[in-house]
Structure formats: C-alpha cells, structure tokens
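Title: Prediction job returns without error message
Component: structure pipeline
Severity: low
Priority: P3
Assignee: unassigned

Description:
Job completed but the reporter wants confirmation the result is attached to the right record. Sequence as submitted:
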Amino acid sequence: MLHGMARICRGSVSRVVLTFNIPEPPPPEPPGGWPFVLDIRRNALPLGFGANHNRALAGAPEPFVAVVNPDIAFLDTDPFPALRRAASERGVGCAYPEQVNGHGVPQDAERELPTPSALWRRRVLRQAERRTDWVNAAFLLFPGPVWGALSGFDERYFMYCEDVDLCLRLRLRGRTLAKAPVRVAHVGQRASRRRLTHLAWHVRSLLTLWTSPVYHQARSLLRSDTTEPRRIGAP
C-alpha cells in the first residue's frame, strides 16, 4: 500500500503515519525517497484498530485526514483529489471511494444498519443490502474538524463495528456520507471468517453496538430517513 501511495499519490499526500502493532522492519524507501513525511510509530503492546488510528491522527494539523488499511491497493488514479472534493461538499461527514477486489469486481463496502434481521438477510438469505447506513473503514477521508469533533473511533471496539459506530455518530450529527467517483482495490480477506479469535471479537463488538445509545438513537433516526449517500459526479 505505502509504495503504491508513493507512486500514484505523489504530491497529494503530505504525511503518512505508519503504526507497527508488532515488531517489523521499516519499509524500504523507494528510489528518490518518500514523497511525503513518513511518521513511524511502534506500539509496546498491540492496540485495537480504533485506538491505533486515534493515536495516529491525534492533533493532526492537516485540513483532511484519512483512514487507510494496509491491504488497500492504489489503481491508476490518485483517489485523494476526488475524495477531498467530495468531503468538502456542504454537510458531508466523510468521503469514500468505491472498493473493488483483485479482479475489479465491486465489493460490498456499503451496508445497512446491522440489525439481527439485516444480518440474517445478508448472511443466510444472501440478499443484497437495501440501503447504505454506513461504510467500512478500509478507506475513509474526513475533514479535519469533523474528525476532531467526533473524537475519532470509540475505543471500546477493539476490532469490528468501530466503523459502524463512527458512521452512525456522523449521521446523528446530521452529516452525510459521500461516495467519490474513484476506485481502489481492497485485497484483504475477512479474518472473522477464518479465525475463532476474530470471530469472538466480531460477536463481542456486535453486542457492544446493539446495547449502545448510539445504535438505538440511530436506529430510530434511520427508520424515517431515506437519505442515501451522496454520489459526487466526476468533474
């Protein structure tokens, strides 16, 4: 991801915070060096997804901040200009690209509120999502003041559902989600389908979400709200 960002996004990214949750060697520099400031952080003990991003983006002075998974692959187009334009629209809380898999097939990054009935339709009946209430946090871009007002991710979610909670809090503040006309590849696989530890984290996070005031307030709001994410057209 980092070398792809250096190659494709040269000039549009000023700083990257790279967090190592476990001991790893630093990435080798590309020819000519990194075209952005590379701020490497190393954790003494592994932290959760939300906690890592909260620490990485704390006090960020940039006008926009982004959450980008290490399993994101950049395609031929720099996504950041389109994402910044989308995030600058009035009332937008965050902007996101379309995610495709390694074969270019769109992924289901846009989801409806994960109620038990919605999960049954998705997992058992294999039905498509009926609306977009939240998007996964593989790649999200926020106006800096919006991220600051949210205080980042809720760190009660060690892994899974922190993106649901964040999007719901945006919606409760009257902010919308905006889909920019640009693609990135998300090449990772859901570990909760392969590892019992991740499955346990997933279930625990769902229970935390379902018992939270944010979930119940958002559920009442979204029942009567037919607003879909904005689709920002290409210039």
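Comment from assignee: result matches the submitted record. The mean pLDDT is 91.
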